[in-house]
Amino acid sequence: MRDIQLKELLEAGCHFGHKASRWYPKASGYIFVEREGIHVIDLAQTKSGLENAGKYLTELAKNGGTIIFVGAKKQAKTVIEDAAKRAGVFYLTQRWPGGLLTNFAILKKNLDRVKELESRITDVSFTKKERLLAKRKMEKLLVLYGGLLGMEKVPEAVFIVDIKKFAGAIREAIATNLKIVAICDTNVDPEPVDYPIPANDDAVGSIKIIVDYLADAIIFGKEEFKKIQDELKKKKMENDQPPV
């Protein structure tokens, strides 16, 4: 993985925090200075937090682990979805469905329902009206769960862009012992986060540079995972060879 440069973070606007009147006291360690009533984030800590999170996600992917990218801010949805698809990970850009982590059976039921409706749409044994109704129901479910299709178990980690909006996700991640990676602006509590990335969580440029870096870290880890699996297969084939 490449080293992220402070200049890149500066140009992306990662250093802009919130108004000093809206700060969260436990975020004080990330604040470099206050200027004109706005807190400025220490980019050295942004760089350190981002690289630590990247190393963790590389190791997670290298060991075959899974993660969900989460964020519902309007300006972040496309960025999150594109990066998640590129890295081949699950994502959620709508409201948090309660019980996603703590009651996975309910989520699995909804994901299976999507498959069932998809099958019904092309099944000519159903009437045209029934197939149209199935299509509408499937489209509604896809809005909520489209980025989670294929999930067969609770993931090992969650990456959250806007933790203030996803307090429920934080609670469920803690309850299920998932690792939490998150962007932590100056108005949120970073304490529950295992891998906090102090940065602006509103500006598109800030969100994009962080999300893309983490996606690259996962891709790198997956490439390492594939190399390990290929090597194991090769050794197995060699061991299965009959003696000459």
TrEMBL record:
GO terms for biological process: translation. GO terms for cellular component: cytosolic small ribosomal subunit. Keywords: Ribonucleoprotein, Ribosomal protein. Belongs to the universal ribosomal protein uS2 family. The keyword Mitochondrion does not apply. One of its GO terms (molecular function) is structural constituent of ribosome. This is Small ribosomal subunit protein uS2. InterPro entries: Ribosomal_uS2 (IPR001865), Ribosomal_uS2_bac/mit/plastid (IPR005706), Ribosomal_uS2_flav_dom_sf (IPR023591).
